[in-house]
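Inputs:
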Amino acid sequence: MVEERRILYEHLDVPDINTFDVFRQYDGYKRFEKAIAEYQPEDIAKMVMDSGLKGRGGAGFSTGLKWSFVPRDIKPCYLCCNADESEPGTFSNRYVLEKNPHLLIEGILICCYAMGIETTYVYIRGEFTLGKKMLDAAIKEAYEKGYLGKDVRGTGLNIDIYTHPGAGAYICGEETGLIESLEGKRGQPRNKPPFPAVEGVFSKPTVVQNVETLCNLPFIVGNGVEWYTKMGPTYADTRNDPPTPDPNTGTKLYCISGDVNEPGVYELDLGLTCSELIEVAGGLRGEEVKAVIPGGSSAPILTHYELDTRLDFTSLTLAKSMLGSGGIIVMNETRNIVDCLLNIMKFYAHESCGQCTPCRWGTPWVRDIVQRIADGDGRQDTITRPKFGVTESGRWGDTGETEEIYEDLDLLESVANNIANVDTMTWNTICVFGIAVSWPAVSYMRKFRPEFEAAIREGKLVTLPVAEATVPPEENYAYQQRFIPKEFADL
Amino acid sequence: MALVKLNDLEIEVEDGTNIVEAAREHGIEVPHYCYHPGLSRPANCRMCLVEPYVFFPPAGAIVPDRQLATGCTTTVRTAPPDRKLDGKYDFIVRTDSERVKKAREDVLEFLLVHHPLDCPVCDQAGECDLQDYSYRHGHDKSRYLEVKNVPPKKDLGPDVLLYSTRCVVCTRCIRFAQEVSGTGELGLINRGSHDEIDIPRSHDGKPLQLLDNKLAGNVVDICPVGALISKDFLFKSRPWFLEKANSVCTGCSVGCNITVEYKADGVYRIKPRFHEDINQHWICDDGRLGYHYINSDDRLQLPLKRVDDELTPTHWADALSVITEQLSEAEADDIVVIGSAQATNEDNYVLQQFAHDVLQTTQLGLFGHPPGEEHKFPQFTIEADKNPNAAGARTILGSANGNVVLEGDALWEKVSDAKIVYLVSGGPERPLADAEKAALENVDFLIVQDVLPSEVTQLADVVLPGTTFVEKDGTITNSTGWVQRIRKTIDPPGEARIDWEITQQLAKQLDGEMNYRFAGEIALAIAENVPGYADATHQNIGDAGIKLADS
């Protein structure tokens, strides 16, 4: 049985931890004081780099590497804390904000010290009224105690934090969308490059970090890199020659919801498997696992065949999915995947910012197609065609059999892939919202194709038994590889 | 300069040029909607996707980049020597690969999902980028089965209608209002597939601000589809029935480059034409909509002479003989010849030659429209001087020895003492100030050459019907010293004649030696005789204009 390892959440349940005095009793701000007393800013940046900390917001990009892109000679430089946590299935930042806001402030202070930043904006989700209230109170207290403001604790540092509530748009959680919104414009992502590290808020270099990432900093500084790297696996990245280490260090706040007995946020080392995680969350509610969404609603779904997948950045990427924000949704045998996809697509069609063409008009179209299938109006052709599948060679090809044509499934896949192609991982959109739409759409449809076919055939939603509903992974793998020449197939 | 391999071409491109422009220079079309050279580049239409090539070290080869890039935001830079591709190229890009073609097709399919496909009743049909690109790059069928969005048609301002259903949300109009006119009336409302362009409105839908700035008409030009439509041109003609001629706007002294679009029965619309130093891509609404006087039914079509205190139509021979009679009897000192800041350099040159050589008078005047309001925008200025050719007329009227060109009060003082005044006006109707009216009333014999009946013609003894800027060839000089061509497009109404021809005819009847056959010949004479105009022949000026050396 895997134990929780509480670091960020260690003192979350201590009464009044949101006040300065109680927080102080539990080492509060001492890590920041240590940072100032013992390290130069460059040392901290190096520690973060060495710790292998990856951004917890979704993309899993190395925090140290991101910091290294920020030009040191252009001032002012800004820190944006992304507290616009709105990925469906994710609710970990919210607890930090509501219960332990001083931890976030300490993380911000360390980041500001390391990067020479004087101004921080916390872009906080508009719906988090309590979180904003608690954070504002904590900031006020920190100002009073001299940890914020001019000449912080006599060190000569000037650090200010401003909170900025969002107005309820999902896309403002995308870093450049967040910046636009923060600047008072319509929340629409920017074209990249330039990346925010070079040109962000008010056209100045900007570090954009998730709440959880920043909350990791006090512990890296307080307990040292060695302590930190012991948690979580480190893989070898064989794409490079010689292979480079690919750390997935630290703990992650997994938000587990869906069909488990004890849903909630669990802080665990990175690298646990799906099944272990379900165990931790009190086990499955129901007979068997049908599917698991591993990282928020935009992540491709995992089937019951893939429950041994380790839930860390690298393993999930190799499994053609992503850890994303760590919002894990477990579905048992009673769930209908078409219905689930419809739910998710309704969300994305509603949240597309409408800036670029493929997403603006593609996303509602995908929703409409899924809606049609769910309503029982999906189209099936009267003719059949040669069935393609895994051939004897193990590759995708003509099997010699015939199959029925489900027009709407072909259309769904084609439209979703035209927004962002999940096979080649290329998108025609400005931001990755495109892939966040087509990833679930295509993966649900491919991995649970029998259920989609049944819905079209029967003219109503049909929930099949798990074994029947799921396409075996070999077949999916072969399908994904179908366009890749044989000699590159396994690269 | 960077060496770029564009498809199979090897081209030299200036640093900082984007792929759309670089390709356009070499005749390769990269379709685009949101990109406009005069505006910022949001890259939101995703139509101009191109395939850049990069060096891929593991394979040791130059391969297509994983992601397609937008041609409008991808700029060419000279690469350092060790980063050159293939040993010499700074940039390698394809605009015709299968991947690019597929991407265009896909984007076009999305663009047409909610488009009403109402080309048969759309004003833009024939000059619509959506139509053109669909034919060139798109699917031939729609796979969309659902009900289309039908956002409402909106009245945005005095001249602009928005057919929201046709809009592709490229945001060119919004960026224009923000960046060029700086007035920012337009914005996006709603989100996602319900995006709509709109002006600020109150909750009950009443407009709080109209799109009524002086540059508003440009949003119609830059709209790549039929969403923004000019009320002035609405349902008037199919664009392919219109003939086009390059000309220059005569609304003020800026001299914006325009295209006059016309049929035999008149001018249908005015569109801006790019000139880097004068008007960029834009013109103002005064110029755009100020052509209506040309098509007016009131235009002077026959010469008029005063009979029993009433202006009555007559024929040319009669009108001219009345004038020559008067002129031949008068003393040179009693005659004042007034040129027009609304007329071309050629008109004014013939006029001053007529005054100087034939009438032997050196007393010339310059008549023009009174100054109006100046409007300054972040990237555009409408000048206060409402005469297109004040600078040119002043120089040219005063070019002969001893000529004195009077303006303003000095002129009217002189006029009130004169016996005969030959006044060339032109352009749209001009009101007279009291002092001007009093001075002209004092004149014994007033000859007015104009295009429309006005307060000036009412005082005249003989009225000669002249021509507007679309009915004659010539050159005009703007306030910054650019000499530019205007061109004859339509025939003058009735028996109206080109202004310099009327003057020349008068000169001939007074035994003057003048025998110009066409405006270009006069321009040659100007080039020879007027200082600063040495290069200003029609041949040299062409469509781009030339800048006078000393200005």
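The longest strand of chain B covers residues 49-56. Flag for discussion at group meeting.
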